[in-house]
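Example 3.
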Amino acid sequence: MEGFPVISAIIAAPLAAVIILLFLKDEMLWLVRAISVATTSFCLALSLYMLWAYDKGKGGYQFVERIEWVKSLGISYHVGVDGISIAMIVLTAFVIFTGVFVSWVGVKQRVREHYIFLLLLVAGVFGVFASLDLLFFYLFYELAVIPMYPLIGIWGSANREYATMKLTLYLSFGAVFALLGILSLYFVAGAQSGVYTFDMLAISKLTLEKGYQIKVFLPLLFGFGVLVPLAPFHSWSPIGHAAAPSAVSMLHAGVLMKLGAYGILRIAMGMLPEGAQFWMPYVAVLCLINIFYGGLVAMSRKDMKFMIGYSSSSHMGYVLLGLATLNYIGVNGAVLLMFAHGIMTALAFSLIGFVYDQSHTRMMYDFSGLAKKLPFVAIAFAIMGFASSGLPGLANFVAELMVFIGAFKDYPFQTVIAVFGIIVTATYMLRCLRDVFFREPQDRWDDLRDATTFVERLPFVVLIVVLFVVGFYPAILVDIINTGVVPLVDKINAVPHG
Amino acid sequence: MQMNLQLMTPEFVMLGTAFLLLILELFMFRGSRKVTGVIGIIGTCIAGYTLIGAGTGKAVGGLFIQDTVSIFFKWLFLVITVLILYLVMMYEEKIRNWRGEFYVLIIFAITGMMFLSSITDFVGFYVSLEFVAVCLYVLAAFTNDNPLTVEAGLKYLVTGALASGFLVYGISFIYGASGATGFVEVAQSLKTADGNGFLIVGITLLVIGLTFKISSIPFHVWAPDVYQGAPTPVTALLAASSKAAGFIVIMRILFTGLIHIKAEWIMLVSLISGASLIFGNLAAMPQKDIKRLIAYAGIGSAGYLLMAVAAASALGAGAIMFYLLTYVFAILGSFIAIVAFNNSEGSDLVESYAGLSRRSPLLAATLFIGLLSIAGIPPLGGFIAKFYIIAAAVKEGLWALAVIGVVMAVVAMYYFLLVVKSMYLRPPKNTDPIRVDLTTRALLYFINAVTIFLGVYPGPVTDWVMDIARVLF
């Protein structure tokens, strides 16, 4: 496949599908679903191909494509992947592939429009992870955010209009600050080198003045941090998760939150090494709020989706801690955790959505003993809960372990506290498992149906398999992530400390 | 004295069309005047044809200049004319009397704006401006059976007259300080002058007087009432072309005539820009009527454009032109959808748009694309325009304005999403589809395609506009 524009194909396939869907009729349900499945399978296949074909020995950015877009401003459509982006693209491809099936089961009205917005969103996400141009990064980012508004607003559950407005405004608010940072970077870097360009690679080659790096790091950290969500700008996130339909929650928690962490990693840390050294210790403190506050709130939630929502912001705290270590193993762990958490949380939301679509309640106290009626769902949920609380053999364990090992050297105090966060996670996950799936069965849930058909089971099976594969053989991802992490961390540590 | 009247051919064609229509009007019976609109559109197309490959130069002894900037704006005005005349044809039923004259006055107003884009002199500027204003005063109050319209017309007239007074007074001060009325001569004589009191008073009065046309603070009060009360095609005319005309004038006067003393007006323009951004966007949030909403949003848009004026650079001037280009298509697409909706439902309230995406996906999509483009959301044209403006401001170090600008972009997203919410999220009250005829459909597809194209592949257009903008500096 030499010369085939793999990345452009991954980004363009969903957009092409959107255009086809626009011309179909609402009644053609099968065709609509078939096109969506075909598109996302195509993206998944290509992303796995990239994982396989990426030359680890060579490293750096591969599959690079570049087309001039606005010459006078130095903007170009410039895409390429390194190890970090490949991991994220594979994650996205898995989540959207399973999400399409989850929507197949869950979404009953306005199906065609649902898939249109879903595919638009995912094209944006793929674009962000592959962009090597700052402006395209922003463009794709907004393309991923805007479809969220109708997706949650139309197909969401309780409180959806408030939730979707809050989410859209928060995310855009963060984004415009990141844009200001990007613009400033553009002009300062341009003035220094004489070539005005939004090209990330060109800008990261420059050595900017230290005071400036520290100044411009802040809007970028804030802008992308809102998306992570970094406390105290996290309040949009659980409520957005809770209101969104299953497939959107999956994408949202599984992938969209990773966009923020990826932005911090790629743009803020990648281009401003001295800024990273100055600010990341503060992030290491803030992320404790995420871990602990998020965990404790998750413990107090009765609504399962809210619980997973807060648990997500708690887990993203570990990711931030990993990034803050600024060493190989910690950053590797953070990226792997983004992947593992994305898969795990997608599984969680798809399972909860599956139950909710039948029961129309997500309150833990409404349920008990579902395992009798829904053995398959119960087993899947248990695996998810174990993964979430870091049981060995599942992907999250490896990732969290790497984060802790990486963090212990520089932040022993934070690490100790963070490790206790795992106990909090285990508490609410196991309690939820007990309350919902075990104990005495109730008569009112007699007509609940287990996941029996192929379409219903496929997403759960795929996600669980991924969790196990990465858990038992993490090298499949870590080796490739490492090729992206090493140059980045080397660059940060090349500048003198202090 | 060089006459070079051939440079004014497009204007003459427009005037000729208008007079021809007035004469034809004598021989027509009461009833539909769609034929007037069609002849008007044909006349506009002929004017456009004469503009292809038009030479540049000066006419009537240097009072009229044809350069690439004026040609760009004339193209813009001609596109607006075609769309507005089409809009009037859709709207015609609601005009009881003098339908033919309605078309003619619009053509006259646009002709005046075409002259405005070629001014080189304060006298020519003032005459052209009043020519436009008189047409617009009449148009704003045209359907005088509606009390809201009468109120709108009166408000527009009174504030317009007041703003005119500011302008003349300001011009007279500048004449006093420089001894000239031509922009180039003024610039030359001010090259050595330091900012004395007379000049500052003159500039202040002049800039404040100019804010009337672009509906920014402090002369913004007319906008919401007039936008709401005036016949919708006139609202569209005010929103699209009045703003464009205002900004070409501002660029000519400030960038050509007063560029050597820019330190004196940048502060003033920045203040007006920031205040308009904040006021317009915040006040748009609680609006229930979509035309009022667009009026307040328009005050905000004027704030963005003034930010680019305050940047006082070629990048800023290019950003203004590109913004106006995207704005024209976004706003006229939206107004065509609004008129089509009003023809069917008789309401302009945002809540009456509930469930529009079910009843007419095309109208809903047009408003979605148009309004979000104005809000500045990628990948639509409006985003690139706002991006250029913010970039111009950041480049000149106008950080405070840039921060206000991006924050207000999020506010704008909020109130435009309220419209989207009504259209897409709420269930419709009745589910009858709204019929849109074939020409309107085609036109809307075209306009939406332009808005998306300008956002997805802006390169050639922005490069072209930036090239043009360098003429001003």
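Chain A has one domain: 6-494. The longest helix of chain A spans residues 160-193.
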